[in-house]
Batch of 2 targets.
Target 1
Amino acid sequence: MDIIRVAATSRSTAVAGAIAGVMREQGHVDVQAIGAGAVNQATKAVIIARGYLELDGIGIVCVPSFVEVMIDDQERTAVRLSVEKRPVDSGGASPPDASAAEKETSHGL
Amino acid sequence: MDIIRVAATSRSTAVAGAIAGVMREQGHVDVQAIGAGAVNQATKAVIIARGYLELDGIGIVCVPSFVEVMIDDQERTAVRLSVEKRPVDSGGASPPDASAAEKETSHGL
């Protein structure tokens, strides 16, 4: 299992390229991040990778989970985005450029 | 289409409850966040909601995308997590408590 570790300072396009590369070869990759900045970069990287892979006819979904990892002998909680293939024509998801103008019910939290 | 808007100050458990509620009723919900802190809270909320919904036999995946939204007459780029159902027994994803101890190839970015 490949794990791509993302930091708050990681370039999201570089991470996206890595995600796309592993997805093309193995069809699955885990992206791991600790802290808000890193989780944000990881999420943006998955979005960008989704665009790259769509050009190859590969659709992706991600399943987020918490994982406990040891860093410098300290236990930290990381967010893991498990990226998996799915058929691009399965529908249901908004395309990356979806307009926010659709009719909606809003819940501010 | 229901949209749940998340801020950096949103409590992830409250957002998770809202996600789980809409998923049970409608089977699909979009979670929208602007900024690293908000994206982090939204992602954590999806993870927590996944735990809630698993107890009901509902598996979820998320498809992240960028959306342009107007806030105070300014265009901002938001991250949207489109949350969808999938069979809980479809396999492939790590469970929420997956150990990070599995054999892995690491890519630090």
Note: The helical segments of chain B are 12-26, 36-54.
Target 2
Amino acid sequence: MILDTALRLFRERGYDRTTMRAIAQEAGVSVGNAYYYFASKEHLVQGFYDQMAEEHTAAAQDVLAKETGLARRLRGVLLAWLDVAEPYHEFAAQFFKNAADPASPLSPFSDESEGPREAVIELHRRLLAGADIKADPELAVQLPRLLWLQQMGLVLYWVHDRSENCARSRALVERTSPLVARAIAASRFRVLRPLVREVTDVLGEFLLPAGDRTAPGRRPSPAGPGNVTGADPENVTGNP
Amino acid sequence: MILDTALRLFRERGYDRTTMRAIAQEAGVSVGNAYYYFASKEHLVQGFYDQMAEEHTAAAQDVLAKETGLARRLRGVLLAWLDVAEPYHEFAAQFFKNAADPASPLSPFSDESEGPREAVIELHRRLLAGADIKADPELAVQLPRLLWLQQMGLVLYWVHDRSENCARSRALVERTSPLVARAIAASRFRVLRPLVREVTDVLGEFLLPAGDRTAPGRRPSPAGPGNVTGADPENVTGNP
């Protein structure tokens, strides 16, 4: 109830202008009691993330039980997120400036957000496990995390989406799901493997949250660490 | 001089807290005079973008004259941007929340920013024209815009980069430039063409600024507009 009250006040008054005192008052509990459950306003946001991850998992259940096509499963899981997130669209837009900095505890990339992040990554793992198309084995290890990263891209797009009922975000999911499925299928081409491996490595090094960078299966780039600064950047042609 | 003064005050006091009156006062001109050159604070930011595009083009001159390797040209142009932008890193971090919304006139995606945006796209066009590796012809038309989009991705990364001298952003450029060059070379594989075309189309529809969406060379998706909502999302396998 404290969490629900907080989210309502965040929506009505904005995140920055809502105090713990006001949340306690509206929820009809003492300030001490509110602090007992949530040590700070930031912790309320973590509670919100937990709740979103839970509702998202529940909302995606149906499509994951019914569909085996990879594109349909991707589409279903991402549309389920848009459904679950819809009531918070306005809040998200003004909240975004607090969460956009990866160094903020409110960032979905932060250590503090590991719990709900791992829950969503697990959802993407199940999405992949039940699909009829399999990725290149090396890519497969990192893929649930990369799909989570793609979802974060969708969140960024959605936050700025002013179209009615976020129709643009929905159209983006409709358009990209078959594409991502196709790219995953294409990852098995032998000739593309070095490129796939490099892209996966770079995403792992620069974009995935710190705690996940040493995830099992991450391999050093084949050219070794010298690649980063010293190696010849012109070794690019592959064998087209 | 008005612009230089404004940028100094933005850095010292923050964008939100700097008024046109204060800028005029510090620059030693009348408020009317300041408004004569810049109709609003937003226009000062546009002036800043113009100046950045100009300095960036000048700083990239050297590498574009000397290098023919695509990866080296990419690397040189992006590192030149990081050099030129460095003095504004702190300003950019706190300014970002005003510019991150694509609907804001301060967004690099806005109609108001078309001038400096086109200047940077032109720089990427020259980067590609002088390189020894050519892209698939269909991709080539959109590629300068896509490289501009990649640069915006770098800006987003850099804004949040807290490493010393933005070493992480530099490392990202070192790592991604050979990769992007390789991906451009790979775009010529016949078997990848449908995927390349689709990805280019989606980026054009959803991420490029509105004015650029009808750029010459953009073709409708081969499956037609029905693709967006009605078509079978499972046509994904290609022929791996």
Note: Confidence is low (pLDDT under 50) at residues 213-233, 235-240 of chain A.
